[in-house]
Queue: 4 jobs
Job 1
Amino acid sequence: MRVTHGFAVALAGAGVGALVLNGPAAAAAGGVWTETATDQVAVMSVAQPSPSVTWAGGTEITTDPDTGAVGFTPRLLQRDTVAGDGWQQLPIRGGDAWNSRINDIATAPDGSAFFVGDQRTGGGALVGRYAGGAWRATEDSGLPAGTVEASLLSVSALSWRDAWAVGQGYEEDTGAAIPVVQHWDGRRWSSVQIPGSANWSVNQVDEVAPDDVWVVGVDEDNGQSLAVHWDGHVWTRAATPLFPDSAVLFDVVARTADDVWAVGWSRDTDKQRPAGLALHWDGAAWSQVPLPAGTFGLQGLALQPHGAVAVIGGNDDAAVGLSWTPAAGWRSLGLPENDPQLPLGVSAVVSSGSHLTVAGWHYVSSDGGDSFAHGVILTR
């Protein structure tokens, strides 16, 4: 299994453990962060089906004591603030049969929801649906022919019969990358070919309406960021700012047709450390929104009230967390770094009013590389 989309810490050596449902709090600008350790469950995605309920999806990491082989079991957690519940593990019907991760969760206005994950050996990719108050894991068997080691990285849904998922796979014989774009019509997932996408890596999708869908990633031919739009009839590539070396987009979220944000990183020279990249679409063009000096690569974003956004990323020196408002510009979210021996990595953020939930993990950094310590959910 290829570990992708920001989950860059090494997983070898991780053990088995139960969930830890409490943790220390840390002061931050704008509020206090509460940190909940999830032990061997690495949290990759967060979503909110209602103002009081939050879901967190990821994988439980296990290591075979005899062979050292690392295994992954998809996991979902839920917190309901109205019920007064802490984080609890949700059952996933059929989930234990998968050696995979939940990479993303999407909710829809009609109460339906979806998750997506990785391909298993000899089969399709992990997909899940929420219906009748329960989650069920199934198989997306409609991957492009010859695709191996595919990961569905993102999913977005308008209803139980209209959802999109994107990700990346590899051609079995040549090892060439294969972009994976899937559409759900209420009965099955089927592959969609975006013109010109043969050498594209696609990371994120956001469906605003049936005739308003954005997909972002990177064009592997020139190393530049990629933004493609579906208007219900044709796919059109929208030009993004060019950089001397390279750029990539990892997340995209639309508030309206003329208010869309995307984040990732850019690099001006081969030797330069990647810099955070934030772009805004005004209905006609993408433009770069300057970030504070020293901001590292960004991984995820969430819309907030009154035109604001929250962005997260970074896992080299420290986690990055920023909020932007039209009046005040960028401000730090003050993500907690409680233990210098266990740096924080973050992968996703979701907003409900002024409240934020961030998914991530702590890791141990050494000259030999980084190793996973335990998962974490931050709430504020």
Job 2
Amino acid sequence: MTALAPYASDPARSRGRRVVEPPAPTRSEFQRDRDRIVHSSAFRRLVYKTQVFLNHEGDLFRTRLTHSLEVAQLGRSIARSLGLNEDLVEAVALAHDLGHTPFGHAGQDALDECLQGHGGFEHNLQSLRVVDRLEHRYPDWDGLNLCFETREGILKRCPLALAERLEAEEPGGVGQRFLLGRQPSLEAQLTNLADEIAYNAHDLDDGVRSGLLQLEQLQEVPLFARFAAEVDADHATLRVGEPRRFLAEVIRRMLSQQVYDVIDTTRAALAHAGVSSADEARQAPPLVSFGDEMKRASVELKRYLFRHLYRHPQVMATTEIGRTIVRELFAAYRAAPMELPPEHREGDPVRSVADYIAGMTDRFACREHRRLYARDLFAPAD
């Protein structure tokens, strides 16, 4: 790792863990967090959780696991250039989706509907709940007992009502910044933006691979069209002769330019703000960002993907089935709690059902639904 900038998060100055532990002899505190996340059950389950295309739709589409790895790679690359803490960026990146339900955002929306009147469901808060409570790996505490800085980065968003509840449970903890209107660490800000860069690029790639998006129609997207023209100029026959290589090269150039833009814009923002410590960075406005032109281009790409991929009838049809499975699983477990594993019959009965469903992979949720309802919603119609 390169030398840390003065505004980077220093593991030697961490605000610590909720349960005090002796330091590790060979690893920093953020390295320990990363390692605990990688060895968690929730992390392994990400391999069978949907990004856009459901797990059974193809072996080459991204999953929550591969997405998290791509976010970590992009985040570390940018962090190194800015002198930020790469290990903290990697830990937050690998943990940021641990609370995602099966079937992507459709599953989250369905579970949120089921929990109206019971606090609702939000995947960022669920990711924090996973690392704070739901992992059972240690004899003396629940959760992974991660550092404050890692937990802070995992909680990307938090409505004020939930922040107030978190502050009551943990005064001065990860909910406080939402009440004070402050920012998370620069590493957390960076991971949030790396997340956006990663999913825009790989959803574009998966959309073309699936056949739902065509190279020709992507000319409507200014960011894509700009780099497609560059690739055409450098490799005149590639688009027609080897379209997969053509797409990969366009996306590679898009990613590189976005990374360079973030580095240049953030360096300028840091210099202008004059921050000299991690705490000063938290009290400043957001400092890790795109420049104005790239921000507009990223928003245009996101809007295009929303209209033409996320709202494509084929995607909507499969995610609606996922939504139905989550709703019906919730109803079945609420009506017959004995169908739950013994460890999920304790505590708040509604939240315990939500925790169990949120932890499921796509394929396990389908299997459980077939077991409880004796029908396969993904089976081809006769």
Job 3
Amino acid sequence: MRSHRKIGVGYLLSRLLLLILLAATFFPVLMMINMSLKPNVMIVNDFLGLPEKIYWINFQKAFHFVIRPIFNSMFVCLISLILILIVVALSGYTFGRMEFKGRKFLYTLVLAVMMIPYTLLIIPSYNIVNGMHLLNTFWALIIPYVSGQQIFGIILAEAFYRSLPNDMFEAARIDGAGEIYAFAKIAVPLSKPILITVGITAVVAMYNDYIWPTVAITGGDEMKTFCQIVFNNAAGKGATDMGLIAAAFLIGTVPLLVATSSCLKYYVQGMMVGAVKG
């Protein structure tokens, strides 16, 4: 017989708290959708009211407004992601599977870098990029992103590679396989969930970044990223068309939503693997 779970006060309070948290999370999103479907005058006069007629002009204007910045952000994220995954896979395998002098010291330095707040690195990063004459170029975003986003991935990959059974690698070495073959044919295929987890985390952070692009890209709008161009206009001078801004935000989240949802299964799997084996 199936036992019936007794519903107590704690059960009801936990579900009520969960509903409150969900409402607090999704209410701003729903309001942004509501704003995107109304003209700016109606937003100002009746912020919480539903649109009397759907105002699609906001999305038409927003599409032409953010299409270039979205492609800029996607280009920066794609190049950075490729470099990040290469560095993470190689570094994680080196720290997790290979023995050499200074390995623990170098790995401790990696952990120490992770403890430094992001904002403290803005001025040094700016001076480095400025010294390399890369300001107002995409490389001014790509190089700091690669150097900053790799830290979490290295730690996660190191824990995963270190937990792999030695028997697989010993069998490969007996068959004459070298370290490069063991890395490419054994370690990398098994670490697919981990690398996808690192990739999603990095892409979300880079795509949503506003501070560093504002510091490094100060030229014309043709080089600016999605968050940079939209946030700058949202906090612009004079009257701001909030319906246009809301529609721009919704359009800009589509590429990120598609990318993350298509890899969500591997992302959850990678987080579980990293949590259990780390």
Job 4
Amino acid sequence: MTHAVDLHAHALVGPAEGLVADEPALARSRAAEARAAGPESSTVNREQIAAIAPALADPARRLAAMDRAGLDVQLVSPMPIHHYWADAPLAEKYARTVNEGILTHCAAAPDRLLGLGTVPLQHPSLAVAELTRAVSEGLRGVEISTYVDGRELSDPSLEPFWARAEELGAIVFVHPWGCTLGERLDLAYLSNTIGNPLETTLALSRLIFSGLLDRRPGLRVLAAHGGGYLPVYSSRADHAWSSRRDARTCALRPSEYLRRFWYDSLVYTGDALDRLVSAVGADRVVLGTDYPFDMGVRDPLDRLALADLSEADADAVRGGNATALLGLS
């Protein structure tokens, strides 16, 4: 049996957040997030962050949680709050501080903890430079959001970033933070339960329909939360591609690109995991816990066992796919 490898977990780098704490733009961003979440969910969000802050920052707590969950290796990514509003000098310093903090965090157990960093995508040339530096210093890639301060991930200005990511073989973990639908989702935590998977669905769809995956077939894109709604309803995109000339903007049917991505297993139930595996293939799914957030799971292996997978497929999801993606021995 392979090692159990979790590719979706987070850490908080306190010194980096200290760099932006007094910025007026941060206050505006948080106010917008609060309006989008609604007052009740905003209150719960603040309580949750306060409760999990020690787990986000302490490698010893992380390792103990991994042991309880039966996890051998974890890929640690930053809190997905990249502050894309920051100007170039601040953005460069922030990204570098985050990346150094992730490396330090993972150095507590280098045989068990691996890291992803961040890049200032709002400044594409800086993003390319920081991606290059981060990978050279030992990070396995970077986490990015689904939307960059008014620009889509498929925006032509980001082509150099994608080109460099492909060249380096870096993992690019697409993870949303909130939803661009704003206050329409301000009830009952819809900002996350619907908003996050919807954002991922939109971001991946734009990567497909923009032709980026035709130009960059070697990209290694990992999608959070099972890829959102895309894997289980790509048939509608296929129909549009077949029926309308304005939708035929990529070389292949949209569903044929599903296997160009990797997906975490954070879909909660055995039935949902079966549907994901059926849509994308067992060799494209990896474990994900979203540690230590409340929308994550503490028992990923128990949930994997609920799926109707063959022993070989379950072993691939457990760690075989992640081992190959990370280049582990």
